[in-house]
């Protein structure tokens, strides 16, 4: 069994410098290969994608992009909890849509369902009206905060 020599002090620093220098030289070779053979010292830039004067500057259906839900997604006499969007949307009567904050005022849990005419928090069984967010039962000391929504065609968005 042979022992390898231990490198310390100046020899270790020299070996590191040699390896770092070799790495930098290799990178310079690779980068120079990416240059234009007719390079005159000025950097060239890509023109990027062509800009057109048609369509939506936002890149698509602007109304659909802002839409939280479609009217057909919200059942009459019920609603939907849209947790990712931070809203509960209900339809108490045909064509009437309401929005509420999904955070239960009792202890900050998120409501999870809309069933039987109420918005329901399963943490402590608070229930809120789909019409106005008022407390129907449970320990919640306050109603759900309203959020203004508007309907444009079949899209529901924040007002």
From TrEMBL:
Residues 66-158 form the Rieske domain. The keyword Metal-binding applies. The keyword Heme does not apply. SUPFAM superfamilies: ISP domain. CDD domains: Rieske (cd03467). Keywords: 2Fe-2S, Iron, Iron-sulfur, Metal-binding. Residues 38-67, 132-159 are annotated as: Disordered. It holds the Pfam family Rieske. NCBIfam families: TAT_signal_seq (TIGR01409). This is Iron-sulfur protein. It comes from Micromonospora qiuiae. The lineage of its organism: Bacteria, Bacillati, Actinomycetota, Actinomycetes, Micromonosporales.
């Amino acid at each position: 069994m042979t022992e390898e020599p231990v490198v310390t002090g100046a020899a270790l620093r020299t070996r590191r410098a040699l390896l770092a220098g070799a790495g930098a030289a290799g990178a310079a070779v690779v980068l120079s290969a990416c240059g234009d053979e007719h390079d005159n010292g000025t950097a060239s830039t890509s023109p990027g994608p062509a800009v057109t004067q048609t369509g939506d500057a936002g890149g698509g259906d602007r109304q659909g992009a802002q839409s939280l839900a479609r009217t057909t997604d919200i059942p009459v006499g019920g609603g939907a909890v849209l947790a990712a969007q931070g809203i509960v949307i209900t339809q108490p009567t045909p064509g009437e849509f309401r929005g509420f904050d999904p955070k239960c005022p009792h202890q900050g849990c998120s409501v999870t369902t809309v069933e039987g005419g109420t918005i329901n928090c399963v943490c402590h069984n608070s229930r809120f009206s789909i019409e106005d967010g008022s407390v129907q039962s449970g320990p919640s000391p306050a109603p759900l905060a309203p959020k203004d929504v508007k309907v444009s065609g079949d899209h529901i968005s924040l007002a």
